[in-house]
Amino acid sequence: MYLLGLCLLGSLSWTRTAASLVLCSVDKRTAPVGGSVTMQCKLHSAEPDVLQVTWSKQSGDFAGTIATSSRSYGQRFLGAYSHREVRLAGATQDLSAITIGSVTPGDRGCFQCIFNVYPQGASMGSVCLDVTEARISDPHLDVNRSEEHHVISCSATGTPAPTISWNLTGTPEQNPQDYSITHPDQTVTVISNFTHSPSGRRERINITCVVHHPALASDIVLSKAIEDPRDDPIEREDPPVMAVVAGIIVLTAIIICLFLVIVWRRKRHQKYQGCWTDTETSQETEKMNEIIK
After folding, report:
1. CATH number for the segment(s) 21-132
2. Under 8 Å CB-to-CB from 231, ≥6 apart: which residues?
3. 69 with 52: CB under 8 angstroms?
4. Is the pTM of this model over 0.70?
5. Rounded to the nearest 5°, which phi and psi values hold at 2?
6. DSSP letter string, 234-272
7. By mean pLDDT, which of 45-54, 78-87, 88-97, 165-174 is the weakest?
8. What kind of fold does domain 135-226 have according to CATH?
């Protein structure tokens, strides 16, 4: 009984030791939907005698053996991966790599590489795969205008984070500022904006925002033209100055009208007064003539 216990203890110790002999290139890989990913593991042993290498999926939408490579049967692909774009490679018998093409969300999970070594038995290592779904919402280009300055903003939301660049007809007064917001669903909103101050002369500025993202077959290009609202010199005057000028003009017109009315009335009065004086003089002359007669 004591001997049996020692044998079991030795067996367990050897299993842990054997399992620790397999080292994988990384513990976790990340791949986008539609891309490809390679996972690689290496057996560390003084004199490896590998009978078979097995790759199995331990978690995710599918669990089970997906590929084997042995001396007797060569390479075989099984289960959900039998009709997939999958390759096994290994320069030596102690190195194995599996490549999965056209990655789908169902590939997300942990994979195990098992080396069946004679006479030690199975040694294994694992790699977990995370799949990112590339998606993007409709980008926006907005211009908030005022007489003092324009705020130009371009934004886009997606996974992974989009990239925004600018094509401008001139050099901006300041470099665009970029901000990012990560949402609970792991999508990221990227906002890029800058401020433009009108020069006061007639000008037309063409602004182009370019959005780059893996989910796009080609970049999204958004363009707008900005007209300086203060092209007209009169329109460029400040409203208070315009009001004062208008008031002065109206007041001057009223004064001129009053002056003309006063002059006209005075001339008319002088005309009537002259006529009345001539009449009186004529009457007195006639009276004197009658007396003389």
Report:
1. 2.60.40.10
2. 201, 202
3. yes
4. no
5. -65, -40
6. TTTS-HHHHHHHHHHHHHHHHHHHHHHHHHHHHHHHHHH
7. 165-174
8. Immunoglobulin-like (2.60.40)
